[in-house]
Design brief:
This protein is mainly alpha-helical. The chain has one domain. The chain is built from six helices and two strands, in the order H-H-H-E-E-H-H-H. A two-stranded antiparallel ribbon has the order 1-2. Helix 1 runs antiparallel to helix 2. The termini are far apart.
Length: about 120
């Protein structure tokens, strides 16, 4: 919804040199924030609890249970929490391995094998 609204505002006013485009940028930033929170919450569920803990506004919180983070908080958490970074790194490595097997990077992909199957 945020992206659609931003796109609509942009299309409606792109030829208006006096239009303030900050509402467009704000909606796009909100979309990034919402998606970033969703991805972080899903990825943070996999590592052990100790790796999911982060310092938010002076308190230690479990990221899978914390309310939505702002863009600034997301950036600080992902770049600054060592245990979380290591835990997310392992999740991303596993995801990359699964993706590689699926699409066939370094091997025959599962999608290629599936495409070759025929109904008898």
């Amino acid at each position: 919804m945020f992206i659609a609204t931003a796109e609509r505002l942009h299309r409606d006013h792109r030829s208006d040199a006096s239009f303030d485009f900050s509402p467009v940028l704000t909606r796009l930033a909100k979309a990034v924030e919402v998606q970033g929170n969703a991805l972080l919450r899903r990825a943070a569920a996999k590592p052990p609890t100790s790796a999911r803990l982060a310092n938010i506004e002076g308190r230690t919180v479990d990221l899978t249970r914390y309310r939505a983070l702002t863009l600034g908080q997301l950036a600080r958490v992902v770049s600054g929490e060592r245990g979380l970074s290591e835990g997310l790194g392992k999740v991303l490595e596993a995801a990359a391995h699964w993706r590689n097997r699926l699409v066939g990077i370094g091997c025959e992909g599962a999608l290629v094998a599936l495409a070759r199957t025929r109904v008898r």
